[in-house]
């Protein structure tokens, strides 16, 4: 469907205020689409948003992250951290039961979760034979054991301050040994967890239905059982425009994010809902822990980008604010600070480091580097994918004004990732979405032992001062002291300019007016425990 067809269809829809498909059911069924598809319902393989959202309805772990990204109790009702940040002792609730399954061989086809279940689940995650992409999460774990059914002890090989937040990831959900070992690799189709919903039906590529778990252990502040919804239904429409039309017609209750194919139809240039939709749709916006950036390979031989002054000139040479307004409809914050994004707890809104538009300073830096007005500066190639071509073309045009000749090279995503990993891209577009809400997750990109291809230091940046700050911060238990160390490292990194921060992303969630109680956070969680739909 082309843009004109989309506009015509939407124009017809907007003439009818009652365009929602009638639903005479007395059940509250929350409907959303997952265009990326769902390949597994085994939390050990919940590596992307689509899988995390589905698994977070079916499973629970020791802890979870709340709306402010604080670690709060879940199956663990409390815990202590001792021995200098190495020993974690968790005390479990005694009222958590697995979803019914005949394999439990009990009168109610269920059983209570005990500490031994976490020993099994976390050991399974660490086991090389499981081949979980989340194995790294427990890389610092030395031992784990259950002295009794209600107590779990995890000991680390060395202090790692953000460890609790890692345990809130879907990877660390509890699963029952008897069900997992019975199904083996087919456990992906036969999930059994402790979450607010149970699997009812999954026809891969067509529809997933999860029904309310009547024995879910959590209640609201008034003592009412959670969740409020009767079911969650997920469809798998691949085409983004079709998904948008289904949402507008009322066949979907929720639309996540914003696709280029309909962003100008839905939003104004300043990022507000257009009037014809504002009457029927609510939009919730929150910072997203995703930093979009351009990275320089610091080991590119004989490249003008090896000169810090050239990298700084590029950072100063384009207008991020204009870029966000005209190419992103104001969605996101211009990346005028460091690599650590807004949205993280303790983020410094008054940061004094980073780069904003200053073409005069950019020109001066080029002159100092021996390239007055870009003279004798060879062309530089920026490698990107088609999804970011508009941003890169904008940067190309603006840098051309100050004499930097940028050649934009478009690559397939998989090919670009491989080129970056092998150090074959001198300048490339990248993004980093947080795995857990701690600045360490971003600054690990600049820790020299993590240089590619072994780690995530794609720029191959190396600085002894930064390495020392990174190691100190990882082991610092005091959050305020840790944040100061992170800021010091972030400031040093930006001064060396191995990256060009483009923007800090933003989450947009769209729902119809009859949907309330959805919860999220800057990790883009989908928490449906308190959601209500007024049909």
Biggest pleated sheet: 5 strands, antiparallel
What is the count of structural domains? Answer: 3
Measure the end-to-end span.
30 Å
The level of helicity is 25-40%
Task: Provide structural commentary.
Residues 3-24 have low confidence and may be disordered. Helix content is 27%, strand content 21%. It folds into three domains: 1-35 and 196-280 and 513-535, D-Maltodextrin-Binding Protein, domain 2; 58-188, Dipeptide-binding Protein, domain 1 (Alpha-Beta Complex); 288-507, Roll (Dipeptide-binding Protein, domain 3), CATH 3.10.105.10. It contains 16 helices and 19 strands. Helix 12 (389-401) links the parallel strand 14 (380-384) and strand 15 (406-410). Helix 1 (3-14) packs parallel to helix 6 (240-249) and helix 9 (308-316) runs antiparallel to helix 11 (359-368). It starts with a helix and ends with a strand. The radius of gyration is 25 Å and the shape is globular. The protein has 535 residues and is an alpha+beta fold. It has helices spanning 3-14, 49-58, 115-126, 163-166, 177-183, 240-249, 263-266, 275-278, 308-316, 320-327, 359-368, 389-401, 413-421, 440-443, 464-475, 479-496, and strands at 29-33, 63-65, 71-73, 76-82, 87-92, 141-148, 151-156, 197-203, 207-212, 231-235, 254-256, 281-296, 333-334, 380-384, 406-410, 427-433, 499-512, 515-516, 532-533. The strands form six sheets. Strands 11, 12, 13, 16 and 17 form a five-stranded antiparallel sheet that branches. A four-stranded mixed sheet has the order 1-10-9-8, with no helix packed on it. The chain has a four-stranded antiparallel sheet with strand order 4-5-7-6, covered by helices on one side.
């Amino acid at each position: 469907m082309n843009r004109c067809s989309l506009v015509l269809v939407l124009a017809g829809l907007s003439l009818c205020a009652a365009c929602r498909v009638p639903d005479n059911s007395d059940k509250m069924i929350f409907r959303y689409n997952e265009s990326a598809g769902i390949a597994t319902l085994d939390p050990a393989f919940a590596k992307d948003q689509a899988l995390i959202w589905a698994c977070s309805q079916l499973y629970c772990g020791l802890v979870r992250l709340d709306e402010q990204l604080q670690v709060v109790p879940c199956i663990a009702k409390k815990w202590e951290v001792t021995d200098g940040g190495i020993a974690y002792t968790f005390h479990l609730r005694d009222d958590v039961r697995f979803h019914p399954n005949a394999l439990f061989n009990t009168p109610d086809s269920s059983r209570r979760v005990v500490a031994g279940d976490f020993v099994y689940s976390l050991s399974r995650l660490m086991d090389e034979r499981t081949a979980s992409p989340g194995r790294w999460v427990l890389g610092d774990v030395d031992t784990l054991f259950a002295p009794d059914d209600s107590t779990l002890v995890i000991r680390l090989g060395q202090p790692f301050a953000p460890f609790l937040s890692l345990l809130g990831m879907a990877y660390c959900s509890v699963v029952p040994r008897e069900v997992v070992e019975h199904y083996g690799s087919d456990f992906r189709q036969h999930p059994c967890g402790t979450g607010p919903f149970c699997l009812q039906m999954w026809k891969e590529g067509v529809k997933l239905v999860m029904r309310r778990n009547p024995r879910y252990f959590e209640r609201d502040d008034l003592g009412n059982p959670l969740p409020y919804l009767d079911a969650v239904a997920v469809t798998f429409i691949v085409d983004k425009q079709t998904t948008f039309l289904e949402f507008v017609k009322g066949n979907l209750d929720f639309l996540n994010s914003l696709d280029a194919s309909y962003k100008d139809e839905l939003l104004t240039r300043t990022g507000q809902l257009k009037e014809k939709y504002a009457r029927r749709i609510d939009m919730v916006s929150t910072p997203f822990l995703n930093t979009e950036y351009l990275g320089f390979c610091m080991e590119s031989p004989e490249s003008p980008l090896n000169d810090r002054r050239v990298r700084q000139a590029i950072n100063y040479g384009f207008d991020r604010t204009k870029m966000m307004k005209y190419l992103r409809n104001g969605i996101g914050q211009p990346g005028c600070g460091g690599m650590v994004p807004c949205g993280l707890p303790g983020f410094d809104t008054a940061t004094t480091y980073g780069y904003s538009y200053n073409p005069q300073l950019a020109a001066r830096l080029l002159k100092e580097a021996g390239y007055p007005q870009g003279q004798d500066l060879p062309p530089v190639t920026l490698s990107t994918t088609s999804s970011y071509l508009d941003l890169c073309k904008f940067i190309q045009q603006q840098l051309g004004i100050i004499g930097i000749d940028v050649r934009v090279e478009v690559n397939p995503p998989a090919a670009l990732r491989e080129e970056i990993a092998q150090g074959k891209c001198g300048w490339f577009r990248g993004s980093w979405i947080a795995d857990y809400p701690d600045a360490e997750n971003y600054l690990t990109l600049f820790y020299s032992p993590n240089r590619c291809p072994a780690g995530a230091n794609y720029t191959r940046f190396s600085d002894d001062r930064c390495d020392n700050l990174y190691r100190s911060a990882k082991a610092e238990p005091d959050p305020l002291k840790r944040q100061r160390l992170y800021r010091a490292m972030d400031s040093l990194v930006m001064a060396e300019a191995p990256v060009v921060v483009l923007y800090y992303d933003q989450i947009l969630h769209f729902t119809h007016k009859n949907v309330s109680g959805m919860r999220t956070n800057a990790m883009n969680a989908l928490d449906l425990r308190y959601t209500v739909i007024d049909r």
